[in-house]
Specification:
Layout lengths: L1 H12 L2 H24 L4 H8 L2 H11 L6 H18 L9 H11 L2 H26 L4 H23 L1 H9 L3 H33 L1 H8 L2 H13 L5 H13 L1
Helix pairs in contact: 2-7, 2-8, 3-5, 3-7, 4-7, 4-11, 5-11, 5-13, 7-10, 8-10, 10-11
Amino acid sequence: RESESRSTRMAIALPLEAQAGLELGLWKMLGTTANLYGLSLTTADHGAFLIQLTTLIVPVVQGVMGVPIPDRIKTAIALALGGVFLFTTDPSGGSCSAGADANAAAASGNLALGDALCVVAAGFYATYDLRLFKWGKLVAARELITGKILTQAILSVLLVVALGYAEAADYIAGATWENSGTIVLLALWAGLAVNAVAPFLQVGGQQAVGPTRAQTLYASQPLWASILSFAFLGETVGRQGLVGGAAFLSAL
């Protein structure tokens, strides 16, 4: 009882902004860590599809919690999942890397582990989306995302120091002027665009349409990745990918 009362007093002592930032930053860091590690062990198409399980997890959890899910949203979710599956498993699409990635992952014997980690990441991301919807009603978007970014950054640095310090030190020591520019650009993109601007927009968007409807839109990630791959890398999409993309667009 004493420990429970002590933890309750600590929770009360923390402002809502701090509580929200700590929780959201933790979920996002766990999801990103599991996602990156999983993608290093499985194939690109497996990872892309399994991460989109958030599209299924969020409405299921909301349904269990008693939130009514309209039939049209259920249909849209089914179409989105089917479209993403067809799109990410397109054998002629450049994004699948069907041969080399699959053979390398299978040869390492870690394909199942990679898939499992991607599923775990989807669970963390789904939890983040659901809790973001809750905290977005209580905390202003700027304070919410600032706390989330700060927590995620601190936890990520601590994780690197604890588990990957030697590898990180070797990588930094071997950096050259040629690849430093690329590293800086990637860090700015991942840190500013992906983990700052996008979550800030996500707060207002989810409050407007709800987490379940938002999942249908989030499932467009492989579609956008394919568009960018075509524009910057010249990768193409096959007939199956086009059918999957059309199914997804019809879900919107």
